[in-house]
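fwd from M.: "can u put these together and see what the complex looks like"

so here's what she sent:
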Amino acid sequence: MKRTSLLLLAPCLLLLPSSCIQKEKSNTECDIESVSIHVDAPSDIFYHDYDTMQAIISTSTDITFTTRSYAEVGLLPLTLRVTEGATVFLVGENGEEPFHNGSLVDFSDQKVCKFRVVSEDKMWNRMYNISILHDKPSEGNLSITFDSYALDPSGKYYVWNAPDIFTDGQWKNGNPGFKISKSSAQPMDYPSTPAIGAGPDGNDCLKLETRDTGPFGRMVNMRIASGSMFNGVFDVGNAITNTLKATQFGSPFTHKPVQFRVWLRAERGSVFQNREGNPVSGVVDEPDAYVVLYRNEDAEGNKVQLDGSDVLSSPNIVGLGRLPHHYNADGSDQLTDSPIHGVTEEWQEFVIPVEYKAEVDADILKNKGYNLVISFASSWQGAHFQGAIGSKLFIDKIRLYCE
Amino acid sequence: MKQSITIYLLFSLLSVFPLQALCHEGSSEATETSWEKWGPTAGLTAGGFIVRAGYVIGGTTPVPLPAEIRKINSFSPRGGVSIGIDGYRMFSKRWGISLGAHFFWEGFHTNADVKNYYVWLEQEGEITKGYFTGTNVTNTEMWGVTVPLLATFRISPRWNLSFGPYLSYYFKQTFSGEVFDNDQGVGYLREDSPVGTKILMTRENPTPYPDNFADSMVPFSVGMEVGFDWKALRHMNVFGSLDWGMTDIWKRDFEAISFHMYPIYGTIGVAYRY
């Protein structure tokens, strides 16, 4: 009897923590996780049926829907999915009122509607802008420079505007991810920075540089960050766990590009390293530049957004123009010490034809059924965290000629 | 909450002391013989040595558990060995004092679901901080020596209770772990504040703790020990003790974990009485 009671002591100690779980606290978060608009005939107003619903990434507070250029909208029922327990207020000129899902919201005349989301514990709130904008007709041919840039609201890194070029008017890159790993970095220490007066004509151009991500990068086995620049979405939420999904390439485009021209010069980092950070002999780093045109909807009408895992390999790709590289017989990238991309330390203009492997449907094209990707990297294997620290790619004067 | 832990512990401890031991208080001649028989070898007020070997189980935990910890999914001990020696001296039939040195290897692994758990990580001047929700795995092991200075009380011929402070010195401490999503697939850090960037964490690619956590652990711990000895044989005791650490295991400037944590380890084992 005495001995058995002795043995009771051990399980008692084990039970101690679980018997002490405290009451759960109220949620502190206050995000809009998705927005949907109800319209009876979506295709009359939007280019795609899926355009009526948007998943919202945590860094986004300006939410825009794009309608066909001729579509007029007025009062529309709006549904927001927010953090559990959070409450939503519609903010007007005369104060705010509680917002309930399905209520009609006046989106006429491209009005910006303001919403305030308050957390369940009432300690935190976020402001969101939601608007429905008319699509602007695109000329087709693009001419892009990188002299319009500014620090982002956090003041940590630069952002580049591309008004009237991409749907959301912005270039994207991996800088927000670099900020997580290297909090001490100054704006000019990021992988994507302006290069002041360094362009071919003495103007400001873009500089991409492969950087060391520091101790936190090593911790998660992501030792380098290639400089990058592309159009689409950079979902920083996936930057640590599912990096290939973080870079979501492309935005709708209504013309068929045939020639991609860009001024480039590069400096090669000295030691090519693999994902584990070990030097790889017999391999040199290479820059990358490409344009892709791909079908942005699958057979069931679902949205297709290519990402780092398939932007150069998806069956949805119809056209591709890229700096030349070596490939293995199975189509995979071949790492070599004798690259053929032709980019040197001197500025040169590259003329890259866009080659088509499938017909472009004129009607689908007109209805924004294809996405265009323009993408650059200082290390072509950067998505796999391989490359040489210090590899640089300078970029200026992009021109895209369309049919 | 603190009170309920204390009550719970007292209850656990008391449950191992059968009341019939106390019922032998009646001072019949047979009982007096019994006191002598089970007493120190050279008279009732002499001293002696006890060599102990035990199994250690417990954890290093915030007390009480903070509301951020929602569920303990699993817990398992690591190490769990204690070998030591105590010298004791009886001052009277019932009261005595004991001083010892117990070498131990103790630790644990735990897997817990957390919500809004504040973390602040610094490595080589780089800082990542924010609120984590998901699953948190922690492993810690400690090698060291504990020096308890205890008052001992003989409640019956064969039963001793002991109580008093102890000082532990750690030769080596490790503290590692990782974070990822919970069984519902929820795992993320809100950078800086609950409205900051939401960075997803998954079990396919878990994020480990930095390897410098152990550098921020204090190599000493002070606490209180309670224990019992049951004289099973003429020279052999069965014993149990509980060491409740009262000093935070983290150095004062350590901010990675926002709450104080205390080592609370119990030992059961056998001892040889000289």
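replying to her w this: Residues 2-14 of chain B form the longest helix (13 residues).
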